[in-house]
Specification:
Shape: elongated
Oligomer: single chain
Structural class: alpha+beta
Helix content: 25-40%
Length: 174
Amino acid sequence: MRFKVLVAAAALTLSASATFAQDATPIPLVLTPSGTGMFSTTFQHTVTGLFIDTFSFTPASFSGNVAVSLTPIDGTITFFSALLNGEGFSFFPEDGLTKFEFQSAVNSKVPLELQVFGFAGDAETLTDMTATYGGTITATAVGAIPEPQTYGLMLAGLALMGAIGRRAKRRVRD
């Protein structure tokens, strides 16, 4: 029975997403340094009924791993899914589990954007209620990783240098 209610609420959320998405203004959050190559922030947000919250983060570009944790603080909230820069994460709660956590590798030239989809209220009767949830975002920067073409070019250069060295060595003998 509970599964059917969650599926119905998810369908309502997805069908209403176009309406909410047009009106939603991103909520700006600042990732502050919290160690070498680490940035983090925490936030709280109050919602009622079906919601789609959009958060945008600065600094503007980021390359590394991002961990997101969302937890109901006050009231009843059911999370359905989240998008981090367009990559989707679904939430399948087990009995008593309300915390929604996920991680993603991100390489972005645009500001990070997190969209959270959920329902605040009684999921059994689909009665809207006001509730508050909090989140923690931790971003760990990763150094640049060369692309395969870079390694290929490096190997070709080493092979060329070896051939030139071998040729020069033969000239000296002759």
